[in-house]
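#lab-general

N.A. 3:47 PM
ok so I finally got the sequence cleaned up, no stray characters, all 304 residues accounted for. can someone with queue access submit it? mine expired

B.Y. 3:52 PM
send it over

N.A. 3:53 PM
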Amino acid sequence: MGTLHLTTPELEHKRLHDDNPAVLPEDLFGFVRYLEHGSPSALIRWHCHDEYEIHLIVASSGKVFVGDYIGEFAPGNLILTGPRIPHNSVTNDEQASNTPLRDRVIQFGSAPLAAMRTSIPEIEGIFPMLDRSQFGVEFFGLEKRVARHMDQVRDSTGLSRLIHFFELLRELAHCGDYRLLSSVQLKSVGDSEALATISNAVNYILEHYSRHLSITELAHFLGMSETKCSRFFRAATGNCFSEFVSRLRINKACKLLMETDHYISNVCYDVGFNNVANFNRRFLEIKGMTPKAFRQQAQGRFGP
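B.Y. 4:20 PM
back already:
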């Protein structure tokens, strides 16, 4: 078994929004776009795009999909997604046909912000948050304040809209009550040399995760003692080496379960586990469901 289903996310371009009355014409919003929609909606589908998006759910509940994350959403759910990370949120069947306003969204371009980063040092503080958004970020306790910021963005134009938008980003950047949804995030490790070292370590793991890999091998690659490597790796990633590798393998397994019809036993060995029972146990611990249940639930990510 190895046939790819059509489960890869649709790459969305701005032109796909043109016929949707919930979205302002492009010449009216610059690089910051406010939109809202109910359910059902053409915007509810498994897709990705080059823009960042801030989603605030205001009504209904259901399943949310961000990368390899599957969870529940309800009113007040607040998620930031980064460029090219696939996502969708599917309303429960009994609510899907009668929700006039379900989701409020602010969408903004990545290229203008990247250009600002090199020339406007005052906005540097928002970028750690934006960097995290490549995994999807769920925020807690900000629903009412973010709703007010969204009102201001919606009701303003020009420079006023830009000011309100950056006030919203500042609010999110200062929030310490959040969780990452789709993958493992590196922590700040101090100077650029240390960051380069942990990046080399992670790249090495990404190249070799599908076979037996030990902290001894990684330490040798980095030119460190095993003890020093172990301490450094935990400080930089928040996980011990074995836990990091295990989580990476599970994330890779999620992608295969979502995008192929490979047997679960084949997925187990493809991502580096050598025992199906252990694979099933670790998958359940990390994702909160079995591989089979994950695959079944993932079929719902397309939406209506």
